[in-house]
Design brief:
There is one protein chain. About 25% of the residues lie in helices and about 30% in strands. The chain is of the alpha+beta class and about 240 residues long. The protein has 2 domains: about 160 residues, no CATH class; about 70 residues, no CATH class. The strands form 4 sheets. A 5-stranded antiparallel β-sheet has the order 1-2-3-7-6. Strand 8 and strand 9 form a beta hairpin.
């Protein structure tokens, strides 16, 4: 897979380590707007636009499209590939920040995330599943949003994680029979009446959307791609 590399999101400019700029951004939101998910999605988005600009981390759409397109059909991200460091680079849809689990009337459901919830979700995937997701940059959309109900000039967050090669390209995903032991070994039990949900032993974490096509079966074993993770707030 080839692409024209771009200095704005080249590997040499990425923050090092699995937490990197994303953890820094989440702390900045909480310190400026208050703890526990900052001040709401629109206020957080406005803050992040200014913060990323101050950090020199706003890039143009031209920078983004220089990378090889892999998928633009996801409900959360457009996905591209960066050959120089073999990473999947993902951009949230303008003005949206993926999804997060939420408890509603005793059941766990999926709802749109605020920027801070999205960043905490990525940090939890690093911590719990040993991923190496980092926040790389932001892109401010130009003109009206293509998404109904979204404001123009919405912010997209650009993250990256190691590209995962399947051990068998014809069968890249684990089966449900393979996936269950993987999650149980990490202290999770199935959460019934939920969207592919699991809860950990001490009832502190919930994972939703843990279906086979959100994992890759690699030569080193099962590894996650995108999971919806949140910490459970005590009542």
């Amino acid at each position: 897979m080839n692409h024209e590399d771009n200095d704005s999101i080249a590997a040499s400019r990425r923050p090092r380590g699995p937490k990197g700029l994303g953890e820094h951004a989440a702390r900045a939101i909480e310190q400026s707007l208050g703890p526990s998910q900052g001040g709401g999605a629109l206020e957080e988005e406005s803050f992040l636009k200014d913060w990323l600009s101050e950090q020199g981390r706003l890039i143009s759409e031209a920078d983004w499209v220089s990378l090889k397109l892999i998928s633009n059909s996801s409900a959360e991200h457009e996905v591209r590939y960066r050959e120089s460091d073999h990473r999947a680079v993902k951009k949230t849809l303008p003005g949206t920040f993926g999804n997060t689990p939420r408890r509603d009337s005793g059941a766990w459901v999926v709802r749109p995330a605020t920027p801070s919830e999205y960043l905490h979700r990525m940090a939890l995937q690093n911590e719990v599943f040993g991923d190496e997701i980092i926040l790389e940059a932001g892109i401010i959309g130009q003109g009206p949003s293509m998404i109904i109900g979204q404001q123009p000039d919405g912010l997209s967050l650009v993250i990256s994680q190691p590209w995962l090669n399947a051990a068998d390209e014809e069968r890249p995903y684990p089966s449900e029979e393979q996936l269950a032991p993987y999650l149980k070994e990490r202290g999770f039990e199935q959460l019934f009446a939920s969207f592919y949900g699991w809860i950990n032993d001490d009832q502190s974490l919930v994972v939703l959307d843990a279906k086979p096509d959100n994992f890759i079966l690699t030569a080193k074993g099962i590894l996650p791609i995108d999971l919806l993770i949140t910490e459970i707030t005590p009542p």
